[in-house]
């Protein structure tokens, strides 16, 4: 597999390099040089396969001979150990639940696959530092995926006081090779600290820097697989006019969905759903890219005003000669999010703020004859406090959360200053 840097098309790397480096020069994102496409009959055959077998086929189409198919299949068996069920909500809308992994969010798919790929492409004695910023769920997925792996040090930055207490417990209580830093600032600030670290060649070399952010291509590729898994679960008549609504923050999930479509998965259109951090919906409405300051919302994993993956979305539309105007979009504020959660509860479906936003825009935008799917990106119990308050009921804690809820937090705190982060990374 060859990938090029979106900021400098002359910089081309292999899959292994892209996985190890995360970002290219000038913090450019890597993008596949070849965009594979399956024939319709191939897609039909694939939709009959089991999740892991089909996922191997999808990922092989991108990765090529850099990883022999049986090796890839073995790695996927280790990474994808939990289901992604489609659950009916109404006659014409269903949820794709992506939160049945160890840290109860869709990020387990990408985090676990990335851990497998990184260990596959790294030398046995190579020391690697994974540095990543999280708006809540990436941190947990990455921490758990890499926990206890030899030669890997994981450093996770998160915005202090801006993620849910249970989200924090899930990844800041592990210790060992997992170090967590609460940054005095918002997610965009954390993300920019990570980018500065990547710009620092000396630091990069000294600690073998890698990012597990959604900018890492391996995470994106893994996420393509569950879009196929969703369609595989739908009866034929619901596959033809399929609309998928994606709750979006950094826009990795949407990029993966669009890549699934580019492979030939029948999806009529996508809806990019955001909260009040609505840089993309405003851009799609008026063509102006004008990020506002990030605001804290109920759907905190989407509190991103400068979404990292957007250049990949634009590149894909350009390469496929799709029209950006065909991309659905919308932004939902906290009040409407709450109302949506209550409406879903009345329909018998327990949700959380992120999924509720995607559902709300889907319900409003669905046309006659279409079938809608929205992504359930996190388990409702991950947002226990707000879900309980909004729905006026108590939620039991799943085991993954219950077993960490009473452990002490091991996080460091830090001002949003690169010099301080740099010193931290270089020590030991
Ligand atoms: C990360 C996350 C999102 C946003 O996904 P992106 O790929 O960053 O757009 C949405 N919902 C939840 C629960 C998340 O953890």
Automatic annotation (TrEMBL):
Cofactor needs: pyridoxal 5'-phosphate
Pathway where this protein functions: Amino-acid biosynthesis; L-threonine biosynthesis; L-threonine from L-aspartate: step 5/5
GO biological process: threonine biosynthetic process
Residue numbers bearing the N6-(pyridoxal phosphate)lysine modification: 107
GO MF terms held by the record: pyridoxal phosphate binding; threonine synthase activity
Domain called Threonine synthase N-terminal: residue spans: 7-80
Catalytic activity: O-phospho-L-homoserine + H2O = L-threonine + phosphate
Name the UniProt record assigns to this protein: Threonine synthase
Role noted for this protein: Catalyzes the gamma-elimination of phosphate from L-phosphohomoserine and the beta-addition of water to produce L-threonine.
């Amino acid at each position: 597999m060859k990938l090029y840097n979106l900021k400098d098309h002359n910089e081309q790397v292999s899959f292994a390099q892209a996985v190890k480096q995360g970002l290219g020069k000038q913090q450019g994102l890597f993008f596949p040089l070849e965009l594979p496409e399956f024939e319709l009959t191939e897609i039909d055959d694939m939709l009959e396969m089991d999740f892991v077998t089909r996922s191997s086929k999808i990922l092989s189409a991108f990765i090529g001979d850099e990883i022999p198919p049986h090796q890839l299949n073995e790695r996927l068996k280790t990474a994808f150990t939990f289901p992604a069920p489609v659950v009916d909500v109404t006659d014409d809308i269903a949820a794709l639940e992506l939160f049945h992994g160890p840290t109860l969010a869709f990020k387990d798919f990408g985090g676990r696959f990335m851990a497998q790929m990184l260990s596959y492409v790294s030398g046995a004695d190579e020391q690697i530092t994974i540095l990543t910023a999280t708006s809540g769920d990436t941190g947990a997925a990455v921490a758990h995926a890499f926990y206890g792996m030899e030669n890997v040090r994981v450093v996770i930055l998160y915005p202090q006081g801006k993620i849910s207490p249970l989200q924090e417990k899930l990844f800041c209580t592990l210790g060992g090779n997992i170090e967590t830093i609460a940054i005095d600032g918002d997610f965009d600030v954390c993300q920019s600290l990570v980018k500065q670290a990547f710009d620092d060649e000396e630091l990069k070399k000294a600690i073998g820097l890698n990012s597990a952010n959604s900018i890492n291509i391996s995470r994106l590729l893994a996420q393509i697989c569950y879009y196929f898994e969703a369609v595989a679960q739908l009866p034929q008549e619901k596959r033809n006019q399929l609309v998928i609504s994606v709750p979006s923050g950094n826009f990795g999930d949407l990029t993966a969905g669009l890549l699934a479509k580019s492979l030939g998965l029948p999806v009529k259109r996508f809806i990019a759903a955001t909260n009040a951090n609505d840089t993309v919906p405003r851009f799609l409405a008026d063509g102006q890219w004008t990020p506002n300051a990030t605001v804290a919302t109920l759907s905190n994993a989407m509190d991103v005003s400068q979404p990292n993956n957007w250049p990949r979305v634009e590149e894909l539309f350009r390469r496929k000669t799709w029209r950006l105007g065909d991309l659905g979009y919308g932004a939902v504020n906290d009040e409407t999010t709450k109302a949506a959660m209550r409406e879903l509860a009345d329909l018998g479906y327990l949700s959380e703020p992120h999924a509720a936003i995607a559902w709300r825009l889907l319900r409003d935008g669905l046309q006659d004859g279409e079938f809608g799917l929205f992504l359930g990106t996190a388990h409702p119990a991950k947002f226990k406090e707000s879900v309980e308050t909004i729905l006026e009921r108590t939620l039991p804690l799943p085991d993954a959360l219950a077993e960490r809820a009473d452990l002490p937090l091991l996080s460091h705190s830090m001002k949003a200053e690169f010099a301080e982060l740099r010193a931290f990374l270089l020590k030991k």
